[in-house]
Design goal:
Elements (H helix, E strand, L loop, with lengths): L5 H16 L5 H20 L3 H20 L3 H38 L17 H16 L9 H9 L12 H9 L6 H34 L6 H32 L17 H7 L2 H12 L9 H19 L3 H19 L5 H4 L8 H19 L3 H11 L14 H26 L9 H14 L14
């Protein structure tokens, strides 16, 4: 069930009405209703993987209780490593087994050994990377004695499988979401209206920006070997706005939907294309994931409070793991490596926190923002390309200006119209975001007139004919 589908348009108002019709004192019933709705939402993708979600939920819930009740450190450690191993094991089998098998066979083949590795012919369970990380953060926090174990199963199960964030985040923490689940919620008109506005904003970014950009991006990347440098630059820039509109659009719809039920989720984006450097970019992009890796991987490794060489090691570890989290392909690993290399000069010169220490913008910052955006666009090529070879050829083509042409965008009136829609909507997006960046506003506030304009653009400019899934569903 896609957020931009007719099914969701019917599902959401029905759940919303039933949820608030329940006596607001009956918190347990409200949570049970949301849990059933979440399981139905997930089962619409593939009901068979619902059992995997349930197993992971029961395991982490049980492990949390057992660790809290343990009378010996050995018993606590046993349950901790059991649930960590099983969760990472499931993630490894479904998401990474074929990658390792094929890479190992390829390596042996280059050494002269012919090996045929058995691969798994199974689809990736949607959202497995997200709900696995929900559970991992929960059991790690209990093991570190940061939080107590949750005794009420429905509350914990809802934390893991809450449908607005189930398949593509944001990656929530038990410290933030569980207290809201366990607290009485009262309907607030202002909060609900803000939720509707955020849903509209997210739909605009998805169906007007991302899906129109996708039309060009798919064709430009598939024909990259025959295209000129200006067209290839256009493809990389359009993909930057496609993935931003797609993923941040999903996050806005998720946050807005959750506000309808009186629950606030973690903010996942903070105008990333206005970042002054790569460090600033990662404080603004997929915030819930970058902070997850910071708190549960980077800091335990020693963070930056170690020797320079260990700081460099930790930086490469966190970026490479982040790339690998996105997908079982060398393209994602190299994408992470590129960001590590871009971050390295900031680390060595100790300027990686300059944007935090000097907030706001001056005219001198324009070239920093432009340079950072171009570097991010070039890195996105590896994220989008099917193979590493395709990505390298694409990048070489960016600097081959021997017969510049933009004929691709002038083939027909349809192409011209779609190009105009992309350009107008992207400029519209950047103007709105820039106004909020200048005000140091973390969240966009929409006026009534702007909401009307967005709804008009969604209905008359939205790409509904060929309904597209969200990019991050594959992760």
């Amino acid at each position: 069930m896609l957020f931009n589908s007719l099914e969701f348009l019917l599902f959401l108002p029905l759940v919303f009405a039933m949820y608030w019709m329940v006596n607001q004192k009956a918190l347990g019933l409200q949570n049970a209703l949301l849990l059933v709705a979440s399981y139905y939402f997930y089962a619409c993708w593939d009901w068979r993987f619902l059992f995997l979600l349930l197993f992971s939920t029961v395991l982490d819930y049980t492990a949390g209780l057992q660790m809290q009740r343990a009378t010996t450190e050995r018993y606590r450690t046993f349950w901790f490593w059991l649930t960590i191993s099983v969760n990472i094991g499931f993630l490894g089998v479904f998401k990474y087994y074929n990658f390792f098998a094929e890479s190992f066979a390829s390596l042996l083949g280059q050494l002269g050994f012919e090996v045929h590795m058995q691969t798994l012919d199974v689809i990736l369970p949607v959202g497995i990377s997200f709900y696995t990380f929900h559970g991992l953060s929960y059991v790690i926090d209990i093991y570190k004695r940061r939080i107590p174990a949750e005794s009420h199963f429905v509350s914990y199960a809802l934390f893991v499988s809450y449908f607005p964030l189930l398949v593509a985040g944001p990656i929530e923490r038990a410290t933030h979401l569980l207290p809201q689940i366990k607290k009485k919620r009262v309907f607030k008109t202002s909060q609900a209206l803000q939720g509707v506005k955020q849903i509209v904003w997210g739909l605009f970014k998805k169906v007007v920006i991302a899906d129109h950009c996708a039309f060009f991006v798919d064709q430009l990347f598939s024909q990259s070997a025959t295209l000129s440098a200006p067209e290839l630059w256009m493809g990389s820039i359009l993909f930057a706005f496609q993935i931003y509109g797609d993923f941040s659009g999903y996050s806005d719809i998720a946050l807005g939907t959750s506000k309808l039920f009186g629950i606030d989720l973690l903010r996942n984006f903070n105008f990333p294309y206005f970042a002054k450097d790569i460090a600033d970019f990662w404080r603004r992009w997929h915030i819930s994931l970058s902070t997850w890796f910071r708190d549960y991987l980077y800091i335990p490794l020693g963070g930056s409070r170690v020797s320079k060489w260990l700081s460099i090691r930790n930086t490469f570890v966190i970026f490479l793991v982040s790339g690998f989290w996105h997908g079982a392909n060398w393209t994602f690993i190299i994408w992470g490596l590129i960001h590590a290399l871009l971050f390295l000069p900031l680390l060595l010169t100790q300027t990686n926190r300059n944007s935090v220490l000097t907030p706001g913008y001056t005219w001198r910052d324009i070239h920093k923002v432009a340079f950072t955006f171009l570097m991010v666009c070039m890195a996105w090529i590896f994220f989008r390309a099917d193979t590493v070879t395709d990505a390298f050829h694409y990048i070489v083509g960016l600097f081959d200006w021997h017969s510049p042409s933009l004929a691709f965008f002038t083939k027909s009136a349809k192409y011209l119209l779609l190009t105009l829609i992309c350009l107008v909507s992207i400029v519209f997006l950047l103007v709105i975001e820039w106004r909020h960046v200048r005000k140091n506003a973390f969240e966009i506030q929409l006026s009534k007139s702007l909401v009307v304009v967005l709804i008009f653009m969604i209905f008359f400019m939205g790409a509904f004919k060929n309904q597209m899934s969200f990019i991050y569903f594959q992760f």
